[in-house]
Write a structure and sequence with these properties.
Layout lengths: L6 E6 L14 H15 L4 E6 L7 H6 L4 H25 L4 E5 L8 E2 L2 H9 L3 E5 L9 H11 L4 E6 L4 E2 L11 E2 L1 E2 L1 H7 L6 H9 L4 E5 L5 H6 L6 E3 L1
Parallel strand pairs: 1-2, 1-6, 2-5, 3-4, 3-5, 6-10, 9-11
Antiparallel strand pairs: 7-8, 10-11
Helix pairs in contact: 1-3, 5-7, 6-7
């Protein structure tokens, strides 16, 4: 099947890695993600990845519990690095080369991030996993993924979640919520829809990086999105 995109930035949620455990990393979910990613790389798609850390620690929640916000966000950056190492290991175990880059210098855990080095890695057929968000507090991994997607010249940001697109309201809470097949950045902002945070959405809009929100937890969906099947919501 023909691929619609040549280079993608795949944003994965840390919470999704929990599977049904409620905390940490579910090995079955991790393995499923690795297989889906390897499948599209074998079709010639270059894949850069950013993973959240919410399955381990969230800076904002930490701040609400009394942690200093800067320290809390730094703990969150470490959580994304743990998830990135886990996914890298899962990919390598099935024969898919992968490499971790970190926003702050953590050698030898990962190579210090450079967009030039990441692009070289992608062109070599290796998956590049970019950990640590932007490396700065007060920025989410959504903003980190928007920034990395722009820096590596991705064709699209694929936001893999447990919901199959963008709805008028939270479909898990409101049964009358209806799904958009496509929606503009401006409408997302005007309606206050929680696709990503405001900074990330504005960054994508300004740099014309389209976003496809889709359900990553259903095996085979990533390949369908890459092939251009309309299974999620496109934000443009």
């Amino acid at each position: 099947m023909e691929s619609k995109y040549k280079r993608v930035l795949l944003k994965l949620s840390g919470e999704s890695l929990m599977g049904s455990q409620g905390y940490g990393i579910d090995r079955d979910r991790l393995g499923d993600y690795a297989r889906q990613i390897a499948e599209i790389v074998q079709k010639g798609v270059e894949v850069g990845i950013v993973i959240g850390g919410g399955n381990i620690f969230r800076g904002l929640q930490g701040a609400a519990k009394g942690f200093d916000r800067v320290k809390g966000d730094q703990m969150g950056m470490l959580a994304t690095t743990i998830n990135s190492l886990a996914l890298c290991s899962a990919l390598e175990s099935i024969g898919q080369p992968a490499k971790v880059y970190t926003a702050i210098n953590m050698f030898p855990i990962g190579e210090h991030y450079s967009n030039r080095r990441v692009i070289e890695t992608l062109e070599a057929g290796c998956v590049a996993i970019m950990a640590g968000g932007t490396g700065n507090p007060f920025f989410t991994t959504d903003t980190g993924s928007a920034l990395r997607g722009i820096e590596i010249c991705a064709d699209v940001m694929l936001k893999g979640t447990r919901i199959d697109g963008v709805y008028t309201a939270d479909p898990e809470k409101d049964p009358t919520a209806t799904k958009f097949s496509e929606i503009t950045y401006d409408e997302v902002l005007a309606r206050g829809l929680k696709v990503m945070d405001l900074t990330a959405t504005a960054l994508c809009k300004e740099n014309r990086l389209p976003i496809v929100v889709f359900d990553m937890d259903t095996p085979g969906n990533l390949a369908k999105v890459i092939a251009g099947e309309p299974i999620g919501t496109t934000v443009y």
